[in-house]
Amino acid sequence: MSGGVDILLNEQQAHYLVHVLRLPIGAEIALFNGRDGEWRATLTESGKKKTRLRVEGCLGPQQEAADLWLLFAPIKRARIDMIVEKATELGVSVLQPVFTERTVMSRVGDERLRLIAIEAAEQCERVTVPELRPAVTLASLLSDWPKERSLLMMDETGGGQPIAQAFSRHPPGPAALLVGPEGGFTKSELDALSRLAFATRVGLGRRILRADTAAIAALACYQAICGEWRDEP
Amino acid sequence: MSGGVDILLNEQQAHYLVHVLRLPIGAEIALFNGRDGEWRATLTESGKKKTRLRVEGCLGPQQEAADLWLLFAPIKRARIDMIVEKATELGVSVLQPVFTERTVMSRVGDERLRLIAIEAAEQCERVTVPELRPAVTLASLLSDWPKERSLLMMDETGGGQPIAQAFSRHPPGPAALLVGPEGGFTKSELDALSRLAFATRVGLGRRILRADTAAIAALACYQAICGEWRDEP
Question: What is the ipTM of this complex?
């Protein structure tokens, strides 16, 4: 991106600015592409066929999101959409779908999820979009795990440390939160995870939460206890 | 409820047991009505017209949910449904819709929300259903506030304490979490809330979260830091 350039919006972007936000010609907005920082732009044309912005100048350098991955098993469409929307608002940097033994869905819907993440990023004024990685099996992900990244797995079986305790003991540095499918992890998956030095089993109370609830809850607790929400505004 | 009694299920209950959970005749389930504790029952009939359970015996006394209220501004239907489902899973005892100055919805849909709360309670094996109170204005709720109950309000303006800090300083006892509508509270509402000795303004980071995200995040942090999730399993 650079100053003085005109940008022609696609239909969805134009709809959002003109019909949802109801911006008039001349309105100033902040733009980002997840790479070049944040830019000031002006709405210069909003016709039936073309909606155009002029990029004016740079507002600030690219900010990095926290280095936080969310690993989640593909679940029903409405609930996976919810996970992607909320995880984007809650500041994850990587969305990693993971096939576990009890995962029943075999497709993820990458393009749909990417659009949901972009819309959520726009909505919450986040200037980055999380990276949506291709789905992999849990076994292959663990066999190739970057050892400096701690893996905090949500364990419904009662075998985990209470989440505030686990997260407050968590060393600073890169982290990944893992949430299983409805039905949870199998015993052999739990056993395998327990043997890994970089993995911690974390409990979210006695009730069995839905997978999307567990993912949102775990991310909120992470940001509150060891992430971005600790800072004074 | 008492042992030896037969219970005829309504259509929705029957559908859940027979088609969703696929229970056969003779299957044992746990029953609750939010008042008499938890009871063991057997599926004795599952025909097209009638589905019947026999209550066998009491499994345990009524458990109380944490004394935690969620006050939320009515928002779009899909998002309010989400709040009610997740808040039920996350253990609130009272759901209180609140009209604020920027609330745009005038109807709440009590019966629909009550059914969502019941289904969520069944799903997560919670033996109570949160009480859904009639919607009131924020002003009238505050003028009649029970002073021993602390009010933790989610403040998007940057004027709040970081949530982990605010919640870890929170005294034990009854609490209410307040989440405003999309668009937030008005200045006069924030000023009024700031003058109340029982109210604390709480921050959830720098990004503007959707109202449903803020509600779910605040409840998860509450349970993790000062609620039920602190206990070892």
Answer: 0.78
DSSP B194-232: HT-TTEEEEE--SS---HHHHHHHHHHHHHHHHSGGGS-
Q: How far is CA B159 from CA A117, B99, B187, B216, in A?
A: 28, 22, 12, 20
Question: Is the pLDDT score of B62 beyond 80?
Answer: no
| Angle (deg, nearest 10), helices A77-89 and A110-123 | 40
- pLDDT tens digit sequence for B124-144: 888 889 999 999 999 999 999
Asked if B93 and B130 touch (Cβ cutoff 8 Å), the reply is: yes
Pairwise CB contact (< 8 Å): B217 & A216: yes
Topology given in CATH for the domain delimited by B68-230: Alpha/beta knot (3.40.1280)
Nearest to B153 by CA among B196, B119, B115: B196
- pTM for the structure as a whole: 0.79
A158, A165, A221 member nearest B220 (Cβ): A221
Per the CB < 8 Å rule, is B209 touching A89? yes
Residue B24's Cα: distance from chain center in Å? 31
Domain A6-60 classified CATH 2.40.240.20? yes
Among B206, B157, B208, B213, CA closest to A63:
B206
CB contact under 8 Å between B162 and A203, yes or no, is: no
pLDDT in tens, A161-218: 999 999 999 888 899 999 999 889 999 999 999 999 999 999 999 889 999 999 999 9
Judged by DSSP in three states, A200 sits in: strand
Provide, as residue numbers in chain B, all residues whose Cβ is less than 8 Å from the Cβ of A89: 207, 209-210, 213
Contact A197, A171 (CB under 8 A): no
Where exactly are the structural domains of chain B?
A: 6-60, 68-230
Across the A:B interface, residue pairs with CB atoms under 8 Å apart total 130
